[in-house]
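TA notes, week 10

Several of you asked for a full example with nothing omitted. So below is the full record: structure tokens for the whole chain, then the designed sequence directly under it. When grading your own attempts, check the secondary structure regions first.
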């Protein structure tokens, strides 16, 4: 079933007298229950595209639909409700609340979710059962990233957007997190989008959207995606 439909998405910025195009007319569709990797070098438009799909930014031109709801026409309140109830975010730089424990950071997303997942099993799955009462300053970068991932999953969103989710993790932990994302996708029939420049991660995706200079260079389907345990970087 179609979850997101994007048509001719353009994003431009004015820098003095110069107009800079981050996206130059992007078309794609996301479906329930698929894991998609958005692949491209720095500056290709990956983050801009995902910010627009997640309702954190608006396209300069084009149409964007969530289950036929026209997000390109949504007002700020409607976009806020969309982000709160439908989308989960895993940011590259964690964005944890420093005055809350790991458990409380996850609990924040549970409090605004319509159908949240249980926190304790998630913390066990990301290997942080013994770190629940620790504050972000008491956690390593990799542990903070795992808290951020558990926070996004706990919300049980229809669409999960991940910006380099394994960037600060070692190989075994990264493989564990990729397995968690794949399991979430398959078990709950949710769409998971991973932004990365790491080609190896793309081999575990159902589909790969390749961006270059603000354009879709190609969309590739993987009929037999690799298991996360076989992914390396």
């Amino acid at each position: 079933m179609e979850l997101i439909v994007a048509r001719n998405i353009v994003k431009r910025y004015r820098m003095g007298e110069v107009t800079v195009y981050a996206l130059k007319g992007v078309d794609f569709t996301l479906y329930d229950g698929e894991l998609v990797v958005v692949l491209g070098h720095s500056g290709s438009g990956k983050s801009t595209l995902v910010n627009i799909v997640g309702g954190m930014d608006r396209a300069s031109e084009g149409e964007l639909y969530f289950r036929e709801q026209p997000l390109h026409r949504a007002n700020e309140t409607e976009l806020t409700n969309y982000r709160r109830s439908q989308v989960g975010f895993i940011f590259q730089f964690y964005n944890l609340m420093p005055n809350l424990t790991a458990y409380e950071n996850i609990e924040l997303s549970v409090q605004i979710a319509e159908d949240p997942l249980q926190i304790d099993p998630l913390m066990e799955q990301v290997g942080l059962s013994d770190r629940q009462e620790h504050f972000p300053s008491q956690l390593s970068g990799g542990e903070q990233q795992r808290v951020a991932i558990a926070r996004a999953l706990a919300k049980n969103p229809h669409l999960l957007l991940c910006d380099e989710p394994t960037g600060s993790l070692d190989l075994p932990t990264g493989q564990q997190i990729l397995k968690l994302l794949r399991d979430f996708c398959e078990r709950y029939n949710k769409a998971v989008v991973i932004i990365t420049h790491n080609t190896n991660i793309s081999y575990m995706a159902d589909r790969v959207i390749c961006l270059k200079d603000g354009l879709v260079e190609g969309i590739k389907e993987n009929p037999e995606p690799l298991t996360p345990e076989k992914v390396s970087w």
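The domain at 2-230 is CATH 3.40.50.300 (Rossmann fold). Use that as a sanity check on your answer.
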